[in-house]
Automatic annotation (TrEMBL):
Keywords: Membrane, Transmembrane, Transmembrane helix. It comes from the Eukaryota. It comes from Artemisia annua (Sweet wormwood). Residues 1-24 form the PH domain. InterPro entries: DUF247_pln (IPR004158), PH_domain (IPR001849). The chain crosses the membrane at residues 423-444. This is PH domain-containing protein.
Length: 454
């Protein structure tokens, strides 16, 4: 009996110790999470499951998340070529680059969500190779690849190479390295006195073909207005799209509270509740807005002005990754998501796309208008965004009120004309009955003609 009691006490003691150990692990996890400020995320499963291909790089891995993917290994030899050209052109010892980035290792690791299962040497080597590869692409686009020592027909480092596919891979959320790594590598190449905005200028020039507008961003834009400073290429690309002239919601320390309530089911949202066809029926007109900023939508005096947007086969991937970043990063507002939700609500069918295409608002190189409708209807399919604080919230309220008011006025006018006066009501009913009799008579005549009685 005593042995059983001792055994029970020992089991109880072991159980309590195990719980204490788990609590200690939880404390350490909390401290680690508080110390980390990730900005490069794994795409949430609820987004990834709907379209995995949009988030997975096709030709090149950047950073650790897809570093081991075998189908991306062929590009590794071109990264080594970029590193060689860099040190050979600048007459540098390769150890200079490794030692410099090694000093930034802890800071770089903290940028990634979760633990990175690479030792120091492998992690630093990856950062150097990926960073030099990216800088060669940026500088080659700006100055010409032949000026950097590459041949005219190079399979990667040339205008006729695989730049389009590489660009699209470089704006995928899971395919990033921190911008300060690129800045440190650029400083080694150009000297400590380099223009702090030179990297941003080169990056915007490189990504310009992906911008879904008629014109690239103005070359003279003030890069110093980026606030906060770009975290990585995707963040820089997004900021270049939305920061020019757009009055953004003020970023405050309380912004994370809005992010936590974004996906609450049943939370009322401010969205356009009518498609293009319904808005046209209510008298709202559509017009192409003359600006190269696709998000800059205006509404006044029953005229909805929407800038032109260019749709190609890479548009889905670009927008999905921008939305994923807005979903994941607590300090990021939701302008891209708001725009896509707005367009999704406007477009309900191929007919809606056809009309916007006719008005010069949508230009696309997809198979047909149905494909464009499917694209917009699917981009935010898994996103339940709280748009009450978005830059379009006031505009959507005005559109809905105008449409509802017009329908109410028309119904009231109909009731006033035909229901206040009983004789007018009788005449309407008589007219409807007469119309039905006429239709039935016509059907009977046609039917009798083709099916004569025997």
């Amino acid at each position: 009996m005593a042995d059983n009691e001792n055994e029970n006490q020992q089991q109880q003691s072991e159980w309590l110790i195990a719980i204490q150990d788990e609590l200690e692990k939880a404390r350490l996890d909390n401290e680690a999470l508080c110390a980390r400020k990730p900005c490069i995320y794994k795409v949430p499963r609820y987004l990834r499951e709907s379209n995995k291909k949009c988030y997975t790089p096709n030709v090149v891995s950047i950073g650790p998340y897809h570093h081991q993917n075998r189908h991306l290994h062929p590009m590794e030899r071109h990264k080594w070529r970029a590193f060689y050209q860099t040190i050979n052109r600048n007459k540098h010892n390769f150890k200079l680059y490794l030692d410099s980035i090694k000093e930034l290792e802890a800071r770089a690791r903290a940028c990634y969500e979760g633990e990175i299962n690479l030792n120091t040497n492998d992690f630093v080597k990856m950062m150097v190779l990926d960073g030099c590869f990216i800088l060669e692409l940026f500088r080659g686009t700006k100055d010409g690849f032949e000026e950097l020592g590459y041949t005219k027909g190079d399979p990667v480092f040339s205008i006729c190479g695989s730049l389009d596919s590489i660009r699209r891979d470089m704006v995928k959320l899971e395919n990033q390295i921190p911008m300060f790594i690129l800045d440190a590598l650029l400083a080694l190449q150009t000297g400590e006195g380099h223009d702090t905005h030179e990297l941003a200028k080169m990056a915007i020039s490189f990504f310009a073909p992906l911008i879904p507008t008629d014109e690239p961003l103005h070359k003279d834009r003030a890069f110093s207005q980026f606030d906060p400073q770009p975290l990585h290429c995707l963040h820089l690309f997004r900021e270049s799209l939305v920061s020019k002239g757009l009055i953004l919601p003020k970023r405050t320390k309380k912004l994370w509270k809005r992010k936590l309530t974004r996906n609450v089911v049943g939370k009322p949202t401010t969205q356009v509740t009518y498609c293009v066809s319904q808005l046209r029926e209510s008298g709202i007109r559509f017009k192409k807005r003359e600006t190269d900023q696709f998000w800059d939508i205006k509404y006044k005096s029953s005229i909805l002005e929407i800038p032109r947007i260019l749709i190609h086969d890479g548009t889905k991937s670009i927008f999905r990754n921008l939305v994923a970043f807005e979903e994941c990063h607590p300090e990021c507002s939701n302008e891209i998501t708001a725009y896509l939700v707005f367009m999704n609500n406007l477009i309900d069918s191929a007919e809606d796309v056809a009309y916007l295409h006719y008005k010069g608002i949508i230009e696309h190189w997809l198979g047909n208008h149905d494909d464009v409708a499917d694209l917009f209807n699917g981009l935010c399919q898994e996103v339940v965004a709280d748009l009450n604080d978005s830059y379009l919230s006031g505009l959507t309220d005005d559109i809905n009120k105008c449409r509802d008011k017009r329908w109410s006025n028309w119904k009231a006018d109909f009731r006033h004309k035909y229901f206040r006066n009983p004789w007018a009501l009788i005449s309407v009913i008589a007219g409807v009955v007469l119309l039905l009799i006429t239709v039935l008579q016509a059907f009977y005549d046609v039917f009798s003609y083709y099916k004569p009685t025997s």
